[in-house]
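User: quick one, sequence for these tokens?
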């Protein structure tokens, strides 16, 4: 069972709904779930959305949670994809003050929510995001976190890629309960640009608060496909003209190239990972050796 956090954050700051889609995630689900339930900010409910898995993903998640009733398992009617799975979780988040996202192969530092809620309250942020540690599929490689901008304007959101979904915390008082767009393959990028376009305040922290797993077969690794989605979002969803879309697309591609080069995994950096991330990852390592 995941150890309970001893720190009690003031209840007036509100409950955080964590939305986690999962599809055949047995190799990483333990560390992801543990990193949510062990948060120093304890007013949390984790909506784990099983997107048609037939392996023991959910059994492992429940085993990790033990008697902790903050884990709520939801299911989609078959394989629908991460955007639709996130919408199932978002539909259940009514009444929560904050919404956070965590993919089933990523991990949070233990102070992630505490840090971001305090940051958002002090800055008046509507959405907060953070740098990430990049780890390989085996959890042994790490690259130095790439800094994110202190704030992200609507214009800049179309020209760069600083937001990793697993680092996002948003205020439902200002953002409402958002929905992922099912018409586009790059649903998270579409959402961030949509929120930025409404004038909401999107702010980045200096401290890296999550580990992002680089998977060869993940959606984010299909660079050509994602590039096509970016172009569609710029032209159809944000309604930019051809020249403006081309300028934003070129900037997006260049900044993505720089980000991935700067965040390239390096084995020598592995010892720089925070100890709590290593502790969470060790749970998956213990399971994989069984």
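Assistant:
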């Amino acid at each position: 069972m995941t150890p309970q956090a001893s720190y009690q954050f003031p209840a007036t700051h509100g409950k955080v709904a964590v939305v986690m889609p999962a599809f055949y995630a047995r190799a990483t689900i333990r560390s992801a779930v543990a990193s949510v339930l062990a948060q120093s900010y304890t007013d949390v409910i984790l909506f784990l959305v099983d997107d048609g898995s037939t392996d023991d993903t959910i059994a492992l998640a429940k085993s990790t949670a033990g008697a902790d009733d903050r884990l709520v398992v939801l299911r989609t009617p078959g394989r629908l994809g991460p955007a639709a799975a996130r919408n199932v979780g978002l539909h259940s988040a009514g009444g929560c003050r904050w919404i956070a996202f965590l993919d089933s192969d990523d991990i949070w530092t233990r102070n992630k929510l505490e840090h971001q809620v305090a940051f958002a309250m002090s800055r008046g942020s509507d959405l907060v995001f953070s740098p990430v540690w990049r780890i390989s599929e085996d959890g042994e490689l790490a690259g130095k976190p790439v800094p994110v901008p202190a704030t992200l304007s609507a214009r800049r959101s179309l020209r760069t890629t600083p937001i990793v979904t697993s680092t996002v915390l948003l205020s439902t008082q200002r953002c409402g309960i958002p929905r992922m767009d099912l018409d586009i393959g790059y649903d998270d990028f579409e959402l961030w640009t949509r929120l930025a376009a409404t004038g909401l305040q999107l702010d980045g922290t200096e401290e890296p608060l999550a580990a992002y797993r680089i998977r060869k077969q993940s959606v984010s690794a299909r660079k050509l496909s994602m590039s096509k989605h970016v172009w569609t979002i710029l032209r159809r969803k944000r309604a930019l003209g051809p020249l403006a879309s081309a300028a934003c697309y070129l900037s997006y591609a260049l900044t993505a190239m720089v980000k991935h080069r700067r965040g390239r995994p390096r084995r020598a950096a592995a010892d720089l990972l925070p100890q709590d991330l290593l502790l969470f990852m060790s749970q998956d390592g213990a399971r994989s050796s069984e």
